[in-house]
Batch of 4 targets.
Target 1
Amino acid sequence: MSEAAAPQSEVFHTEDMTISIGPQHPSTHGVLRFVVRTDGEVIKDAIPDVGYLHRSIEKIGEKCTWHGYVPYTDRADYLAAMFANQGFCMAAEKLGSTEVTRRGEFCRVIACELNRLASHLISVGTFGQDIGAVTPFLHALRERETINDLMEEICGARLTYNYIRIGGVGYDITPETCGKITVFLDHFELIVDEYNRLLSYNKIYIERLVNVAAITKEEAFQYNLVGPNLRACGVKWDIRRDIPYSVYPELDFEIPVGNGEKGTLGDCYDRYWVRIRELEESCKILRQALKMIPKGPAISKVARKFKPPAGEAYVRVEAPRGDMGFYVVSDGSEYPYRVRIRTGSFTAMAIIDKLSRGIMVADLIALIASLDVDAPEIDR
Amino acid sequence: MEAQEIYNKLERQFPGKVGNFHGDVFDPYLNVDARSIVDVCRYLRDDPETAFEVLSDLTALDLPKVDSLQVVYHLYSYSKRHQIVLKADLPRETPSVSTMEGVWKVANWQEREVFDLFGVMFEGHTDLRRIMLPEDWIGHPLRKDYVEQEEYDGISTQRAPLVEKLLR
């Protein structure tokens, strides 16, 4: 065989082709770029090139007051702004030993879980779109639109909320809004089944995802994958349960993990399937929180000139893209000394170079979509 | 395992290399000699009692008052559910420390970010390039004494306040 192959390679001159995918490409979920070296359809390596959306949010943190920085955290991940709000406020509260009112905590949980639904809907919808199924995307966005309307009722904004403040939440949730959320949940819980019919049990969809770019547990630890990406590898780990914060310990919910449903453990399908099941769990949490929400003030009394004592705190919240960490250092002044935002997408991007070797170009698109990376969160 | 126990264990294993333990703060931390940070981390990862599987975060702190640039490592163990924060003090003029890539692969990207924004050199890093900013950017923005260059690529980075412009 090798003797026959040798002269042929002399006749047909071959070389690797380098293609640039992005920065403006619909399947790159924002503004990010891959320099892909291919041999025909097979990828030799895909080097991610990030930084197009770098807005130096961490540096801005050093120039703002503690209260004044909260709206900026929205922009860290604009698909899940509520979680960055909460992360920063929790870090400030930890440093300043500030109490959060009980009603405030429940308002936070309700707003966050609605936001998680919205974010996962984008993730699931664009996943379908990226690999060629446009219809589910429209179905997902339709539901997200209702959530945005509910968000507008809760806090007046549809995308960058600035709702969670140090000590509680900006506005109380009215009983009317609670009623509307319940009506929405009655409607939405049935819709999840629609996604299952459209995508989850769709033969073409399954074939495109199973056994593609499977991640082992060890790799996930090495690259510090978090959130749904980590759970898809079979690791039952959720910050809401394992490093409890807010009122999550009082709520009853399951943590979906990947189990190699259709193919290998930790493949693209597992990552998708975990997110779909998280939609159901979020609905469950919302229903309980709406029932349990106590009466009382939504925000505690916090000094307008908030000056936490010198020190540092590291806080984790379970965002839709996993463990979002806020490392905040105070020097006792009106301004944070350092704000560091550690995001799930950033570490998820680091693994793409490794996983992309030897897979097809079309599978790379599925891989990026399955990791649910989000450009603003990578670059901050 | 309590942070104090982890510290005692490290002190026995690496005498003189660890110190300045703070146990009564929100997230207990300790200082590690910059030259042995990789050995300490590998030990913490491999020892079955500590079992720190993940490097949650790697970042830096610029402290011009004490002329130091601290690289901060947040370690977490999923199996033992404990956390420790390690800090390595580096001189601000020539900050340099060995890469953590050999222990946790994720350090590759996190160190690139710290290199880009703080200017810390990571010895032995396989791909130490800027990650957020363009290759030809001058300076490291997250340093406290950073002054933004006046123009980049022929485009001004300064802008007169809009109100003043309207008043003119």
Target 2
Amino acid sequence: MSKFRNAIMGLALLALASLGAAQDGKYPGVGRAATPKEVAKWDIDVRPDFKGLPAGSGSVAKGQEVWESKCAQCHGVFGESNEVFSPLIGGTTAKDIQTGRVANLSRSDYPGRTTLMKVPTVSTLWDYINRAMPWTNPKTLSTEEVYAVTAFMLNLADIVPENYVLSDKNMADVQARMPNRNGMSTQHAMWPGKEFGSLSKPDTANKICMQDCRPEPKVASLLPDFARNAHGNLAEQTRIVGPQRGADTSRPETKAGTPPSTVTAAPATVTKPDNNEAKAVVASLGKYNCTACHGMDKKVVGPGFTEIAKKHAGKVDYLAGKIKAGGGGVWGQIPMPAQALPEADARKIAEWISKGAGK
Amino acid sequence: MSDDSIRSGRVQKAPENFLSRTGIKEVFAESKKGRRDFIRNAFAAAAAGVAAPVAMAQSNPVPSEGGDSNILNLPEHATGLGQGVATEGYGKPSKFEANLQRRQSPGLTQTTQSSVSFAPLQSLFGIVTPSGLHFERHHQGWWDIDPSKHRFMVNGMVKKNMVFTVDEIMRLPSVSRFHFIECGANTAVEWGNVAVPTVQYTHGMLSCSEFTGVPLITLLELAGADLKNGKFVLAEGGEGSSMTRTIPMNLITSGEVIVAYGQNGEMLRPENGYPLRLVVPGVQGVSWIKYLRRVEVGDKPYSSKDEAIHYMDLQPGGQHRQYSNLQEVKSVVTTPSGGQVLLDKGFYNITGLAWSGKGKIKRVDVSADGGRNWRQARLETPVMSKALSRFNLNWVWDGKAGILQSRAQDETGHVQPTYQQLRAVRGTRSIYHNNAIQSWLVQENGEVKNVQVS
């Protein structure tokens, strides 16, 4: 009996407890207050009105130093590189800085769209560099370095002079010189809400028509024959059973009516023998961000691993040294920075390359 | 169309090498001369070794031995002992399905960590994307994050800045909903002209899952968010790129935006943001912040990198549309589609997907003559708001060249535009939000190609 009584008492207490908690909130026991220290560490966003921008400054000169050691590998010495990411600098003029509209954006024959041609706000550059750059080591730049790199980029685009020091005090003045600051519009129906005074009616108005809706259609665009196999053999990219097969694009489509040969019954499974040692090395290439700049077979920023293997077969010590110390001038203009990985792992990678960089 | 006219269009059966290459050549040389019936004879003859009756021969004709060897000779799996339970602790697809892979589009990006892989829409059924085939878009690589160490913070215009563990998020009342996610740049390479061969590459930055999680509004209310003055919410990821996007308040207060941990009955996959991602129904994928670590309530928009440099739509006058978020009404035929081969005339099921970021799909029409004449397709159930819908339509291919198109309309009445209509207002340089009607050319030889029509 006493057990039963205790249970009743327990339930009553529970009821009281939940009543008490209900006064504190709907879901008692879930979540806690964030400490100021925690919020300061994570709340790093900077808005166009510069809310969130930490006090500080950085010079164009300092920015150039940081740029050359941490940014140029991917973005080029002048931000012009198109090897890894879209170019950052170029395409803007002194007149654009006056008008706030980048004239080249209205030209359909202008070849590229650089970051500085598009971005309307300095806050965006600062925020993004601070949170996500350098690409392989995000959030490692000091506040001064972020100001400095931003200043250097703005100088490359002739928005600030060579001797400029960008700071939280003058960023608004610089933002008022951004070449594309007047290039944005929210007059469209693709924001759900009224915050931007957006339109509510979509910009296209197709109608449901069922019969004789248009004249005889003509094919205006299709892939050229030389691109037939550009995405790999399509026969190996479609299920092997069903109402259709994938086209065997490893063979040309003959002019006189194609025999549409299709894939063989067995899917293209890779059944190479396991090479665990090579596998471990290849996995470490990702871990140490080697693959950010080196392809397996092809040049990205630096040479492909098999290309290095051909040139430096058997030279384990040389390769291990190069990985640790970095280098330049062997394969192209962009130097490879020194890599901070354990000696033993650098050696394993060097051995793997020296043996041909196979998978 | 009466079902009497429906006959099987499948002629070739696996294994595929029962016709010699010269035999195939002969068949298609003949078909080019307009003697399509020859195909039937030749295929049937090759399979059976004798002249088969004409007139829509069966796709699996009776062989001369009096029966199919696959029936007459019992296979090993009918006469032996199969494998035991839990041979695979986590089951995998059949080895015969290995052609279905998410794939990169060659030459599109220079690195794999800032890149995209496309889902194989050409071979998927229904509306749910298998989690392992869900398209990927990473800006700075993906991670497999220990959920016991992941935290979620709410701050800004709130009474109390708060942090939650994943345990705590999972204790709260949850919802489970089906939604599509489409990258704003899906079909981007096709703005100006045809650039890629298959629906995997034209439309494969599209997936649909059942997501489980807590409505974001629940967490904002817990923190005492000032929803009167706080008109904008920033969402931020916890990985290297720490993606940030301004999230429309309308979709938060409606309870639609979810802080999700579940996907198709299990936890999110690491490539899709394990352990927490934001689900923003109807809005382009870049706003569905993965590895979600923080939301901030504010009174102004944020103009983040992917709102002020990318994911803006360049218009013919040189202006960019900023904060363009919604994925408007769109559809595509997934079979028959580019890169596929139909092996004979006869019956086919035209099937495809339709979706709208503004609600449910109301109807889908399909044309086999490049948009001159249309027939209404069957919408399969369930038809859900801001989720993929599957449509089907019976079709008997007469062996002549044709152009397949689909045209969707959503519940707001908005009809998917043609390329001409879309380009008339947005030009060809927008990159994002291409929702034009897709055309697939079915050639006389059965090969289907990606085309655009004038």
Target 3
Amino acid sequence: MTTRRRSRPGQYGAHVALLPMALTTLVGYLGAMLWTLRVSFTSSRTFALDDYVGLAQYARLFANERWLLSLENLAVYGVIFVAGSLLLGLVLAVLIDRQVRAEAALRTAFLYPYAMSFVATGVVWQWLLNPSLGLQEVGRRLGFAGFQFDWIVDPDKVIYTIAIATIWQASGLVMVILLAGLRGVDPEIWKAARLDGIPAWRVYSSIVLPMLGHSFATAAILLLAATVKLYDAVVAMTQGGPGTASEVPAKFIMDHLFGRANIALASAGAIVMLVTVMALLAPVVYLRRHASGVSAR
Amino acid sequence: MLLQLAHHALGMLSARLTTIAVGLLVSVLAHAAPPRAEVIHWWTSGGESAAVRRLADAYKSAGGVWLDTAVAGSEQARAVAISRVVGGNPPTAALFNTSKQFHDLVEQGSLATVDAVAIKEGWDKLLPEPILAAIRIKGHYYAAPVSIHMPTWIWYSKAAFRKAGLTAEPATIDELFQDLDRLKAAGLIPLAHGGQPWQENILFRAMLANVGGRDLYLRILRERDPRALQSAEFRRVLLTFKRLHSYVDAAAPGRNWNDATALLITGKAGIQIMGDWVKAEFALARQLPERDYGCIAGLGSHVPYIVQGDAFVFPKSADAQTAAAQQLLASVITAPRTQVAFSAQKGSVPIRPDVDQSALDSCARKGIEILKDKSRVVGNDENYLTPDQNGALSDILTAYWNSNTSVEAVQKLIAVALTQ
């Protein structure tokens, strides 16, 4: 420890170089956060005002059916989306890891959805899922008269269609992260396993995958962040409908921020989301730090 | 010294360019620049941008320079305008609906008045009352109206009506439902609907106007009267609204309004309840009112005519030239000739009755005729409700339309949302 504390040349240079970024973080992120917190205690409409009303906006928020439904939707969506993307990404990564032909082409194909704006691909999904234009109609024209796939217009199932479309988009990214992790596994392990005659699935499940903890944590954090800011997929595919069935918190906040000229209520919603994210991410970050501390020793 | 070097290096061409540049600079300094107006609006579709070009042309022929800043989406456009005002870099003019949308800006003292134009043209006598109420605050005029839309016209496809054996247009609400039943029996989509909250809101307002009448309409939306909100009449309005749901096809959720209009154009659906902007869609498909489609402003002569307007506001500027450009803009866009040219493209009704109506279609002329009867004119929901109340109402209505909530529960929710 004492050797580390000795100042080295360039140490201050690094700090100076990081200063602009630190200032951006302090003013841009932390400052905006505090400003949002302040506004959420006021009765501001179009402009920020100083008339504090305590927790009134929060009380209104949690009496609002659309907000509560948004939270519920986000929870359901988050579980399906994170689990689905991790699983599909893992399957893709493992399959590609088995030295398939045309690996580069497949990798590109699977990662491509992530490179495209969801505003565009969401519209394609909307058409695919539309019962009178898309898959259902195609199925019926092929002769399956009773074929039914109308989830996007069904208030009880619409959130699953959003999950399907966004899993399609995000699983490529998960695949790339996990594939990088798989490629980092020492080939000697595979050779040893082959000598011992252990089947491949067993090597993956008992040896290789447990070594990918960091890759999984990275993918999970990215997916969680994507869950919380879910907005473009909903706007492009359902606009929150049918009715309010696929509303999500980010859309609630955006609607109130601009269209409904109620920045105080929107800010309260944003703060609730922030607290939720921190509560969700804290264990992950803690585990990661804990894990790296163990491995460093 | 530097200039000389440059001349030598680049030769005659450079010298010439410099002369031109200096000449231009001198001429700019010597003569006052023409009034320049940067205008933020959200009119980006085919018919809309043709309409806004009429405004720009009129401004140019009045000696002004029109700088077009079109932002797709009305909410986005207003958000851009507001953030530029807040950020100290306001546009010369920005489009808003004639509603409370810009009243916060007025309260903040961010908007210039157009009193001179308003008094010279006699807006008090010319404009419908809901438009005046939205733009005139404490005796000052803060916006120049450009169009009057009516959001709850009932449109019907003549081809679909023929297929269902219908010959006359519905004259009462009961006849409307009979016609919907006949259309359904003929295997058509009775009601072409786009399942988006604002479109469901339009169906609600149509029922509030047609079933509830003027008195209930104003007591609900303007007075937000708790007794009216709990009344049996209002319950009947909500039930009629919900009854329309049984005439909508399964693919309606999420559909855009113009796709719903396309169902009428192709004769697949019978009726659509929507604002008069659908005329642009019919026109694009080369269909004509009375020949291919019909328009009904209201089922009965007692039904109120809802006025939904667009207006330009003029953010305050310390610059005298900008102020002059704003005054010129306000007077040009409200002038009778501009109004006719604009309305014919936009599908709206001119803001003033003293115009040459021959260039307008029969639906617009029906509208102008009804507007003369002051007792039928009412404001749109956004005239009476704050954007926040209106949004809360819209959330409740769209949830009711798409779920099996009881009408009593919905009535309670609306009462809470509007009296909050």
Target 4
Amino acid sequence: MRDIFLDLSIRSVRLNFLRSILASIGIVIGVVAISSMGMLGANMQLSVKQQLSSDVNTIMITSDVVRTTSTAGTPVTAEGIDKSTLNDIKNAAGQNVVIPIHRTNTQFTIGSTDGRGSIYGLDPNDITKFLSIDQGDNIRGANDAIVGPNIATNFNMNVGSRIKIGQDNVSITRPTVRVSGILTARGFASDGVNTDNAIIVPDTWYTDHYGNKDIYDQVNVIMTNIDEINQTEAAIDDKVNRKSNVVRITDASSRLSSISSTLGTITSFILAIGSISLVVAAVSIFNVMMMSVNERVQEIGILLSIGTEKGEIRRMFLYEAFILGVIGAVVGGIASLVIGYSVVSAMIGNTAYFFMPESIMYVPYGMIIGVIVCIASGLYPAWKASNMDPIDALRSE
Amino acid sequence: MSDRPLIQLVDVSKVYHLESGDFTALNHVSLDIDENEFVAIMGPSGSGKSTMMNQLGILDVPTTGELFIDGRNVATMSNLERTHMRRDVIGYIFQKFYLIPLLSAYENVEYPLILKYKKRDESGRAWDVLKSVGFDQNMSAHRPNQLSGGQQQRVAIARALVNDPKILLCDEPTGNLDRKTGFAIMDILINLHREGRTVILVTHDPKIAEFAHRTIELEDGRIVSS
């Protein structure tokens, strides 16, 4: 059997149908704002995560020893990773792929155009382990090179083009490499190897011209199983950094988490904007509840005088607020599915993540907040109603 | 307890603190009402009738003096205890009926039972009481605003009776009714008194007061005859 106070509340809402619906619309808007803003943020995070997580299986190891110089103006640079450290890393990494990397910046000339960019020295066998070649072939000869797609486009390079490496200086004949292949665009690479604007040469060519044989600027470990990334990092740390910090071990997941936390902040911010509309809704619910109480003073007086407990009067009005909240939340929940989907597809251009739990949970989340806001707005009116003096209330018309 | 009258006022005063100064609505009133009495309270307006009714109905507490109802001192009861006393010991019948507008006639009668037992009535008591006051069952689904004054007052009496109260407080029960309907309502009250209830009736109509066995006249907050 239904509670008579719930019945009274339902009838009161029905009696003042238009007013109640108008107040509920406030809640609808609030729920829609919270849910769709939340879903927008969640979809933003999910899609960025997806873009970044392609390289999260890579551990990046760089030297932690800083080389200081006494010459003024010479930049402070990191020491490289030496051969014995590399062997330790290989031992610790087990069967995961270890890729030692040489890297510096250089000037170069193609035809008569000068340019500047990164140059990487890699074992040709390692290149295909994490890079993909769009045109041409991998490095075969000692003077072959592979270039990134942006550099190729900017300097009109083709397979077979020749690049002079080094600063243009009349007194020196610069070494020349031949482009054997052009890489597929990588975009922002979270494994620290940004090849879109780079030239990749064989490691032997690199050390012949830049020295630093067996001294590497970075070592990447590509995990075959991403779940073991933390154990492998710990193993490397244990092996290499036993006495003092020799290398710095990072992976893209830390960067990913910092980007995620930034996006999380943005999400909270837009959620806060959305919740302003709920504050407005709360005011309108409060107003309607006060009207309902003030219109029914005599009825409250009757209820109190024939023995209704204060708590029962409070319950009656809280039910009313709850009903308004539920109406608003249900309509708002449905509307936020539609509106949220449109907003996400318009602003992110990808609705693949829309129905994932991280995103869709904002609908029930918004609905619950809507109902809670409604009940909270009804607290004072309910309290006011229950504390009326029955004699005064009865006398009012 | 048993030697104490059902209702006992001992030197009861009620003072309202108004901006224009204190107003004494009841001035040192002492009164006993025994079980199964039929008492009419009369007096001109402003004489303290309503204040007296509010005291007897435990809607208010005396400023000074003591009021015992059913052996209990009203001043020492908690708000909740007074609420339960209003629900279980006293039945109210008002001049303006004061039915709950959102509830049907039947639900209005059922309501005090729900308050008392915290559930819908399954005993048929609400129906029985409605029948006993001569209310047409076909009308019981109607809301109060669809009923005539006489019908509404029958529903109100049924509501007052449904929890089997010892005391019936009637505040001008016929004041909003035509003479014929008024007497029909009075017949019901006389029967209820005959069945053993204590009936207290406030009226300014001497014809109505004649039904009572004892008339208490109030003037300026004092009892001038009883």
